[in-house]
Amino acid sequence: MKFSRNIAIASIALALAVPVAAETLRTEYQQINLEQVAGGLSNPWALAFLPDGRLLVTERSGRLLIIDGDEVSEVQGAPEVTARGQGGLLDVALHPDFENNRLVYLTWSQGAEDGVNTATSLSRGRLEEDRLVDVETLFVQDRFSSPGRHYGSRLAWLPDGSLLMSIGDRGAEPPRSQDLADHAGTLLRLTEDGEPAPGNPFLDRDDVLPEIYSYGHRNIQGLLYHPESGEIWATEHGPRGGDELNLIEPGNNYGWPDVSLGRNYRTEETYFEYTARHKEGMVDPVIDWTPGIAPSGLVVLTGERFPNWQGNLLAGGLRAEEIRRVVFADGIVVHEERLIQGKVGRIRDLAIGPEGDIWLVTDNGEGNDGVWRISPAE
């Protein structure tokens, strides 16, 4: 099912003009204000700040929006997505040199000619006012398949100009995540043009797809590069329980589905008869969230806006309807706190704004979604 995005800008603005008074909340070390910036969205998936402070937001149906205070406009020219199940228009990221080249990168579910199968794809276009121009598809995963779930699709730029992109196991055949000749269940490292990045761990092997950076993933939907430590962190969905926070290193196998701390949805037994809790040569998660939080969106606080949370990771939770604050000491997780639990619903993505505040989008459906901001209470 393909969606047209020819919707009047005025109607979008009317739907989103839903001011909500800020609420002050107490946390363990910081009083915060929780404020809705925009409402009336439908299944937003990601947000990214433009250099001038305006906000790009994707909706899974295929709309790319610009939010500028209480003014909202739709960006024309985004890819024609196949919005089925968990698929649609997904992540958005700006090129590191956006101020000069105006390039916007988007992940999305691309439909096959059979009208059934889909693949995770990466495109880019140049943003000119309210339109993407010169849009081109840079990368398409090697195999179209069904059903419409587990697309992965988080993006993160590295300092060397390469781009990380996650692809989920696509749901129906989890063992694909252990097949290095298949993009499903992997984290990729690409050049800005969508080619395999130099220095990838498997470039010298003819039996491995050269884009693969790590594998054995189920469905990464939180991804970041830590600007101070240089570490790559990812959160991914387990089955019933077994959601993970992983420290990503090149060439590592993160286990799925041979290893999982989650359970089968139907039987609550191990996911497969061969699934173990640990196997030699496969990397265990830094955190196993059981019960699961359904993680989506991951950021690190490195500024001084929240001094008592500096260096903490924040992981959004869909099922848990919360942000999980993760505290490290000497590289070890020593504490977690649940923030805004149940206040806004399912949290799909997080971002740090230009002023250091925490921004998020919800994914509750039926037009009940919005953009929210968390700031320190004065």
What's a quick, concise take on this entry?
This protein has 378 residues and is mostly beta strands.
Fold and architecture overview:
The protein is mainly β and 378 residues long. The chain has a single domain (9-376), classed as TolB, C-terminal domain (Neuraminidase, 6 Propeller), CATH 2.120.10.30. The protein contains 2 helices and 25 strands. The chain has helices at residues 9-16, 98-101, and strands spanning 23-26, 31-41, 44-49, 55-59, 64-68, 71-75, 89-94, 103-111, 118-128, 131-140, 155-157, 163-167, 186-190, 212-215, 220-225, 232-236, 243-248, 287-289, 295-300, 313-317, 322-329, 332-339, 347-352, 358-362, 369-376. Residues 1-15 have low confidence and may be disordered.
Produce the secondary structure layout.
Layout: H1 9-16, E1 23-26, E2 31-41, E3 44-49, E4 55-59, E5 64-68, E6 71-75, E7 89-94, H2 98-101, E8 103-111, E9 118-128, E10 131-140, E11 155-157, E12 163-167, E13 186-190, E14 212-215, E15 220-225, E16 232-236, E17 243-248, E18 287-289, E19 295-300, E20 313-317, E21 322-329, E22 332-339, E23 347-352, E24 358-362, E25 369-376
Antiparallel strand pairs: 1-2, 2-25, 3-4, 4-5, 5-6, 7-8, 8-9, 9-10, 11-12, 12-13, 13-14, 15-16, 16-17, 17-18, 19-20, 20-21, 21-22, 23-24, 24-25
Strand content: 35-45%
Number of helices: 2
Please describe the biggest sheet, giving its number of strands, its sense, and whether it closes into a barrel.
5 strands, antiparallel
Query: What would the principal axes of the Cα set say about the shape?
Result: globular
Spans of 5+ residues with little confidence (pLDDT < 50)? 1-15
Q: Assign the structural class, choosing from mainly alpha, mainly beta, alpha/beta, alpha+beta, or little secondary structure.
A: mainly beta
Q: CATH topology, which one?
A: Neuraminidase
Share of helical residues = under 10%
Rg computed from alpha carbons, rounded to a whole number of angstroms: 20 Å
Number of strands: 25
Regarding quaternary structure, how should these chains be classified?
single chain
Instruction: Write the H/E string, N to C.
Output: HEEEEEEEHEEEEEEEEEEEEEEEEEE
